Amino acid sequence: QLHLAESGGGLVQAGGSLNLSCAASGRTFRDYYMGWFRQAPGKEREFVAAISGSGINTDYADSVKGRFTISRDNAKNTVYLQMNSLKLEDTAVYYCAVANYHGVRSAANFGSWGQGTRVTVSS
Description:
Order of helices and strands: EEEEEEEEEEE
Radius of gyration: 13 Å
Number of strands: 11
Largest sheet: 7 strands, mixed
Distance between the termini: 40 Å
Number of helices: 0
Helix content: under 10%
């Protein structure tokens, strides 16, 4: 089982960028399909992006497609989320997690959630 820890959140102006990291412990990190989710106050946790173990296949929510990029470095046991052109509605706590099945976006398909990192986008 992986243990995950997110970092990189903060306060940024609209239009700015942040790069989130998710560091994983565990020797089989490369075997896992990984995802990023976010949860805004009063809202359900929603899918943001996911990446296959090899890093070749990626998936994005429509709301972030073209602005966010998910990547991974298996040598460093880390998944990244580069966020550009940030909008006010991107404000949320961002979580990374491990998928049980590839290609399923539901939060119920993911586990080993990290503690989250807060992203606040200001006008």
